[in-house]
Amino acid sequence: MRFFSDNAAPVCPQVLEALTEANVLDTAYDGDAWSKALDARFSELFETRVHALWVPTGTAANALALAALCPPYGGVICHRDSHIQNDECGAPEFYTHGAKLMLVDGPQAKLAPDAIDALLGTIRDDVHQVQPHAISITNATEYGCVYTPEEVAAIGALARKHELGLHMDGARFANAVATLGCTPADLTWRAGVDMLSFGFVKNGGMSAEALICFRSEFATSSLYRRKRAGLLLSKGRYLAAQLLAMLDDDLWLANGAAANAGAQLLATAAGDRLVYPVEANEVFLRLSKEEAAGLREQGFDFYDWAEGEARLVTSWDQSEAEIKPLADAIAVLG
Amino acid sequence: MRFFSDNAAPVCPQVLEALTEANVLDTAYDGDAWSKALDARFSELFETRVHALWVPTGTAANALALAALCPPYGGVICHRDSHIQNDECGAPEFYTHGAKLMLVDGPQAKLAPDAIDALLGTIRDDVHQVQPHAISITNATEYGCVYTPEEVAAIGALARKHELGLHMDGARFANAVATLGCTPADLTWRAGVDMLSFGFVKNGGMSAEALICFRSEFATSSLYRRKRAGLLLSKGRYLAAQLLAMLDDDLWLANGAAANAGAQLLATAAGDRLVYPVEANEVFLRLSKEEAAGLREQGFDFYDWAEGEARLVTSWDQSEAEIKPLADAIAVLG
Amino acid sequence: MRFFSDNAAPVCPQVLEALTEANVLDTAYDGDAWSKALDARFSELFETRVHALWVPTGTAANALALAALCPPYGGVICHRDSHIQNDECGAPEFYTHGAKLMLVDGPQAKLAPDAIDALLGTIRDDVHQVQPHAISITNATEYGCVYTPEEVAAIGALARKHELGLHMDGARFANAVATLGCTPADLTWRAGVDMLSFGFVKNGGMSAEALICFRSEFATSSLYRRKRAGLLLSKGRYLAAQLLAMLDDDLWLANGAAANAGAQLLATAAGDRLVYPVEANEVFLRLSKEEAAGLREQGFDFYDWAEGEARLVTSWDQSEAEIKPLADAIAVLG
Amino acid sequence: MRFFSDNAAPVCPQVLEALTEANVLDTAYDGDAWSKALDARFSELFETRVHALWVPTGTAANALALAALCPPYGGVICHRDSHIQNDECGAPEFYTHGAKLMLVDGPQAKLAPDAIDALLGTIRDDVHQVQPHAISITNATEYGCVYTPEEVAAIGALARKHELGLHMDGARFANAVATLGCTPADLTWRAGVDMLSFGFVKNGGMSAEALICFRSEFATSSLYRRKRAGLLLSKGRYLAAQLLAMLDDDLWLANGAAANAGAQLLATAAGDRLVYPVEANEVFLRLSKEEAAGLREQGFDFYDWAEGEARLVTSWDQSEAEIKPLADAIAVLG
């Protein structure tokens, strides 16, 4: 049983079905009926007028967002353990044309306003130093923790004060919303977020993520950048259809909640072994080499993380029955 | 009936089926069984060792290829009417970090060796002028014409002489091979091609094209550039599966031939109205405004091209019965 | 006697003297008294508030200007024979991060409004095509001809209508102003120019050109880009001092007029041989191979240009006595 | 008396004189006699065949070197306190087209092989993470300390083992060589350095630094990149002449030694207050706010550095008599 990554999970039946339904003749690129419906559907979800662009990866969504918010000669403040810094092979630098990521530490892979303030205090306001133009936060974070709407709003206020754009990497946005029980609006634009990478692939989608632009001036340039990056698929209806299927009946939220529930089963079993609070679908726990080997012998697969730590990721399709054996095996370790 | 674009056509049943079959748990990105099979399967097709990378668009394939062949301070020789110059919103400039496209004219959107030579003759060999590093040709061309293996080889020889890389934009490679009856090998690496954008989406695929690297040094850098560009989908098996399905039983070639056959029906009907020889699945014909309006009234949709010209594109899924009405309507115009 | 290039000429005594005077302790970069005086001095010259940045080359000035006016995904309309297209090794593409130069033809290397309009008419307003964001004109042009204030204003009006920025490459701005007898203001911002590369090096300077920003929003980003490009010399006072010396007593204008006068001597001698009207310090004339060889035998050096054409460039330091021998030798050819 | 920066110092008389001597007609750009002499003169100094390119700033030299050594998708290992990271407004990212600086800590702003090794150990060898392609060290360092030839060689060996290029930022190379008493060759290519930014401006020059390429493949691309960056001054002879004047009679070394001697005077006075060993022309010392204010009242100018620290920089032109008052004032503080 694999607890490696939510990317390994299969695609949700509703998404697959949507592909079949979209398999008719229509206009190329994003001129089709499905793509044209996105702005309205996401605007409804977010209770405000947004522009929604499908893109094939979260990396693309993140990089496009940062390119909209930060000029080539600027900087983006982010966590030292963020995906944009460590796992995207320099995509932010590519899309922004060389902006600098400015790294901040903080527990749970979260940025705290005072840590951002401290970084800002070290930057001389002259042309010799790269000046920050944006902040990027990840919700849920790399360590499966969430920012509350209030926490985001505190960062949003700081961003406004310093005239910085605010991006949210929401690869696991659904998991965060499911945990928090808040509205998508409260967690984003009402808290000052300008651009959101809204993830669907880890959550049951196949190949479509959404870049949500809460300010229309960023949407226009992003449309050109998307094409210029080779991200404008010629049969876009198959991406748009996935997103629409995920929005129908709030499937995205149900899937996020399902994955979270699986993680809670494991968290309960792990008890004191937990490295971070489990607030999404990732469980980081202390595990000795021998313990890890023992679990693997029983057929459970997962990543080693830091020395003496392991990461378990649950996904939308794992039932309690599928997860329970691992939970039991962990509980047995004591 | 739409004759706008082969991008508007639906996806082939075999491809859809392959998606369903791939809908199981596997490793993320390109670590899955399908993705890992690509090099071998394409190597077999091309009768030599190649590296094959799936990408979601032809624009991405083209831009990655050019980035591998040309440094930021170099130039790429291409036709004035090429897709990379006119229809990719500057993707080559983005991926190469600012290389210059050097435009050459020629009938049928084809580059002739002497036209390339003439351009080369105008470039001073000093640091003030951008120096060419690559040639890019399109086969079949923007105007539905083909380069024969001999024609490609003549350009390949010129490329070698001047130490230029050679890229082929094969968005309609299947159509070209189907028309020429040659092997894929003869039309590419045996003729000096270094990188091929092998198109599948216009030919019945959904969202996967192949970047074929005939020299391994270009594959390595392309793997990093693909990730960095946000093109490495996290569930890559759904792209690889499409490509494998298209290779099975040479579906790609059958689809290309089917689209070509439809174009021949139209070409025969068009007779003297043809602007270019019809050698793939595109038909350019002279059509007055009134004639075009008349055809549209009968329910046929297509693009106006230059003044007094129209473009008709046929696709893999159109039967003779579906095309005949348009052929007849054209024949009636006289 | 060399008529190759005004870059080959020595530096004006006033400029050399200014270097010696600046050879004292002062603040680094552009914090010194000389650099700080530039905005005011150029504002006076241009009769409006401008920002003036020293840079070491005209290529740098041009590229910085274009980067301010055009986003990476945009295009810059310019003449096919412009310096930015042919002689800067892709500097505009480097600084703009891959914008596309959109080439227009026209006699005397001048852009005419209707030729620009014709180009604009060919560009589809969709994300597949690079959209123009700026126009760049050269005054005096590559062929030694000038745009009048009215001609610039016509282009400026077109630029405003289409929301395009307007840049003037003024490598030989002094020569143009000297010929036209107009004010610098009339030839630039009053005619709609947003950014001017004001050349001094060809006109007696050593290593300092000025980038003039007529709109302050462009100045701010240019200050960062200048540093980021390694163009912010650490002892900037030596560049600023050159510019100030050239402005003193309108030395720049006197030098431009002197070079122009030399060219007129040659133009008169050349008569019907002239390829273009001589309106600055360049003379293009028809010259057979034998005639060219004959002149070279007499000790005159110059560039061959197109087949059967030669280019003669005069500079600020050449007296009538120095030029007359060549004028006489040309006149003798008949 | 200013102890702010060696950039504030005036230009050496020999350099000024060289400018006057170069003030004759010659070929433009780097085609003149002075520029052409550089390769040979620097090859002699370095006891091996090198290519030497003049550039107007150290930032430009550094950025060109990194662009030659590292592809856009790669990384450059450097010290957290290095100039390329903190003081060049992202020039490395601009010239490399978005490579990532990978920061390492270490005392005295020096990189130690084991610290580099530790960083390398954290990078997964997959396409998701930026892979390092080069190491950049600064000698003398930002804190006025030097790497010995043996220390450089240890890093050079590590670089070779991991197939990384090695760049040395030698803004104060002269100061380092003067302190070490070694040959320039021993401190560079014999220790594995591929590219050197050889600084002259802080050391008495006006506007010319040298980029030294120890491997010819890097020189070719750098020539194009220099032009493309707008760094190829049209009257290059005035830069080349400065460098030649500095090489004559080892003026560069004498100037470096002179500045070092001044720093030693201050170091002796500072005694236990020193934060770092004084091995070049910079002195970092502990100084309370009150003490700093006291010194400033006496007419000494300098930068505050970290909390409770100050930086004093001496330059080539300061005699013992000029420095002694400050040394005495510091000694008095006890």
UniProtKB/TrEMBL annotation, chains A, B, C, D:
The keyword Amino-acid biosynthesis does not apply. SUPFAM superfamilies: PLP-dependent transferases. GO terms for molecular function: lyase activity. Keywords: Pyridoxal phosphate. InterPro entries: ArAA_b-elim_lyase/Thr_aldolase (IPR001597), PyrdxlP-dep_Trfase (IPR015424), PyrdxlP-dep_Trfase_major (IPR015421), PyrdxlP-dep_Trfase_small (IPR015422). The keyword Chaperone does not apply. It holds the Pfam family Beta_elim_lyase. It comes from the Bacteria. Residues 3-284 form the Aromatic amino acid beta-eliminating lyase/threonine aldolase domain. Its cofactor is pyridoxal 5'-phosphate. One of its GO terms (biological process) is amino acid metabolic process. Signal peptide: none annotated. Homotetramer. PANTHER family: L-THREONINE ALDOLASE-RELATED, LOW SPECIFICITY L-THREONINE ALDOLASE. Belongs to the threonine aldolase family. This is Low specificity L-threonine aldolase. It comes from Stakelama tenebrarum.
